[in-house]
Design brief:
Layout: H1 4-28, H2 36-43, H3 47-53, H4 57-74, H5 76-82, H6 85-104, H7 107-116, H8 121-142, H9 151-164, H10 168-182
Helix pairs in contact: 1-2, 1-4, 1-6, 4-6, 4-7, 4-8, 5-6, 5-8, 6-8, 6-10, 8-9, 9-10
Length: about 180
């Protein structure tokens, strides 16, 4: 029997990841209220499995947010290694824009999570600054990005752009302007 436990855990982990992926897609769709039943169906699991993993809608939304932030930030080293620095920064900014788009469908729940302390904007800024620093450091080492730019200034600019932009097209143009401003 002990040999079967890892398989069950792998299956449970796979279900959890499918739920998070389905919830991410659903929340990014722009619908006002995404039903838990629809997320479970999209993930190919029962509602009981969803609630076993995430006891509340808020818990699911918090995990969607955290896993999206982690995926975004974990992409920075690969981008910095595989692309020229300015191109890596542009792609990171594009991915950030996609990440923010998924948050629009969960704005109320995120505000509640931030108010409760479950999610901290300082934690988010810290992770984003670390990821941006990886790309800026690559640009400094290889050339192509300014050496006088602080990661936290880039992150504040990213957040400001996403808050001020009238829509995704304008946000994309503004993020391109930010990337151009980082060019050496």
């Amino acid at each position: 029997m002990p040999e079967r436990r890892p398989a069950a855990r792998k299956d449970a982990q796979r279900n959890r990841e499918r739920i998070i992926d389905a919830a991410t897609r659903a929340l990014a769709s722009g619908q006002d209220l995404v039903k838990i039943e629809a997320i479970a169906r999209e993930a190919g699991v029962g509602v009981g499995t969803l609630y076993r993993n995430f006891p509340s809608r808020e818990a699911l939304i918090e995990e969607v947010y955290r896993s999206g932030l982690a995926r975004l930030c974990e992409s920075a080293p690969d981008l910095a290694a595989e692309r020229p620095p300015l191109e890596a920064m542009r792609e990171f900014l594009r991915r950030y824009q996609d990440f923010v788009a998924t948050k629009r469908g969960m704005a109320d729940a995120l505000r509640a999570a931030i108010a409760s302390g479950a999610i901290s904007s300082g934690h988010t800024r810290e992770h984003l600054s670390g990821a941006v620093a990886v790309i800026l450091d690559a640009g400094r080492a290889r050339g192509g990005l300014r050496t006088d730019v602080r990661p936290d200034d880039v992150v504040a600019s990213m957040a400001g752009i996403m808050s001020a932009a009238a829509g995704p097209e304008q946000a994309g143009r503004m993020l391109d302007l930010l990337a151009d401003g980082l060019r050496d």
